[in-house]
Amino acid sequence: RSSGEKFEFQAEVSRLMDILINSLYSNKDIFLRELISNASDALDKIRFLSLTDKEVLGEGDNAKLEIQIKLDKEKRILSIRDRGIGMTKEDLIKNLGTIAKSGTSAFVEKMQTSGDLNLIGQFGVGFYSVYLVADYVEVISKHNDDKQYVWESKADGAFAISEDTWNEPIGRGTEIRLHLRDEAGEYLEENKLKELVKKYSEFINFPIYIWATKEVDVEVPADDESSDEEETSDSSSSEDEDKEAEEGEDEDAEQKPKTKTVKETTYEWELLNDVKAIWLRNPKEVTDEEYTKFYQSLAKDFGDEKPLAWSHFTAEGDVEFKAILFVPPKAPHDLYESYYNNNKANLKLYVRRVFISEEFDELLPKYLSFLKGLVDSDTLPLNVSREMLQQHSSLKTIKKKLIRKALDMIRKIVDEDPDESNEKDKTDVEKSSDSDEKRGQYTKFWNEFGKSIKLGIIEDAANRNRLAKLLRFESTKSDGKLTSLDQYISRMKSGQKDILYITGTSKEQLEKSPFLERLVKKNYEVIFFTDPVDEYLMQYLMDYEDKKFQNVSKEGLKLGKDSKDKELKESFKELTKWWKGELASDNVADVKISNRLDNTPCVVVTSKFGWSANMERIMQSQTL
Ligand code: ADP
Ligand code: MG
Fold first, then answer.
1. Residue bearing the CA closest to ligand 1, atom 23
2. Max CA distance (Å), the chain
3. What is the pTM of this model?
4. Is residue 139 a contact partner of residue 43, using CB atoms and an 8 Å limit?
5. What is the ipTM score, two decimals?
6. Burial class, 165, CB count within 10 angstroms (exposed 0-12 / middle 13-18 / buried 19+)
7. 162-175 residue pLDDT tens
8. What is the DSSP string of 335-376?
9. Which of 81, 95, 141 to mutate to test the pocket of ligand 1 (most atoms within 8 A of CB)?
10. Distances, alpha carbon 360 to alpha carbons 45, 328, 495, 585, in Å
């Protein structure tokens, strides 16, 4: 429409659209689930507002919180419509084109390397998937606070917005009209759409309808010659005839029937989903496949991998709630990128089946924000503002229980993973009965989310020991594999008091360290900590199972006493004294005789409370 106000897409959005338009990606189906997911979000929003203000829903059809799909085969239009919150003119401008979300460029980048469009929803740009199947899209929207507007674009770098003076008023909500491309004709087939809704949108909590054709049997007069004529005659006379036929049946059974049945096509709204809340069901009756599908729709993660673990439970007592938690198969692209200024929590909060929010960071501590899931509480009040809810006293209890359950769930990945148990302690029968599906799952978990466990040790003092049990690392004896603190302790030399570790940039670099020479020779095991976060971690993790941690590059390393120690100290007394004097006292704190070295004549160690050399390096790189 030439009259509309024109806007240019933000550059990254424009690039994204180009990629989508030209994509050879074969699974174009995903656009439908993205649109339905947006419709569902919009319905959640208006339902939430209606908790404190009933008026917002309006009356009649407007108050029906539902999603409708309609086809126009002649015009090749597929439309998806919701009675959700709708968008004001300003919303349309911002949300659909001018303000790029943080995920936009990340997604564009990902498309250029791996190209799996399936994850588009996770990046917050799902709407644009409409251009996989359409070359022209109209978005008609009506928000309670504004007039009805049409947004339209042919994905040519620009979009237009006009006040809608020609379509029928839609009441409230949004209707997306897709003008399908020639090669996307399959999306004009009712059955295809039904199949897609069933496949991808099973767990949408609002009814989804399709304007479906229905073959109905209609009785028409059977009098062949005159049938045309009679069909057009008024209905009362044909009714009379039916009656006559019925009445006359007994007396004249041989007389041929005067009506016949023909198929006629009509339309009606057909419901495609049954709106069930999976978390209300008995966990014993929910299949693994259902949990996986639920995870996918909740997390918008439609990759090929199943979640690594889940936990579905009911909490009872003074605070009652139901919850399902999932460990995703992969960490999201930005999990640690913006850890400290990212307040995104991934649990959805419901109160008595009504969706409240997914930005409720009071439910889980930051370090567990990689989990996905939902909480449905019966205890929290429904009709208060989000701010009031955030202050509610039962949140603390909910959070505590969620953390406990989450850690149990992660612990279970360890327990079920045959690679994690001590193979030596097992009989062959036990070994062969290990489920291969669970093998290596904990290593997988660790590679994706290990850093979160470390951050947990730093942040969550109450669960520090539980989290330390989940730590994995390489050591001088781990043989390229990951090992745990419990395994380390089981291998400690008799008489060894402390857990020994060293920090640095890589295992290869550390293996050459003079600090290790003698320790390795004497068969001590030393842990390699090579992640920058490890330095911080070790400031919080003081001990484990009554054993202290000792950085072998720091002062205080005590190996078994050597009878010659005292003798050596005496004979080199003059040398150490001279040396200390030569190096001005602000360069070194002390010069000592030590038994920690082998080939290397001397090393600089850090004092007990000082920063290790590695920490100095990290701090320097941060201030630069
Ligand atoms: P996301 O859903 O992850 O936010 P999308 O690209 O799917 O990303 O949608 C972008 C934005 O457009 C949404 O956040 C929402 O504000 C708006 N939007 C899209 N579809 C609808 C709709 N049916 N009703 C209301 N707002 C919508
Ligand atoms: Mg979306």
1. 39
2. 136
3. 0.81
4. no
5. 0.99
6. exposed
7. 999 999 999 999 99
8. TTTTGGG-----EEEEETTEEEES--TTSS-GGGTT-EEEEE
9. 95
10. 15, 19, 50, 54
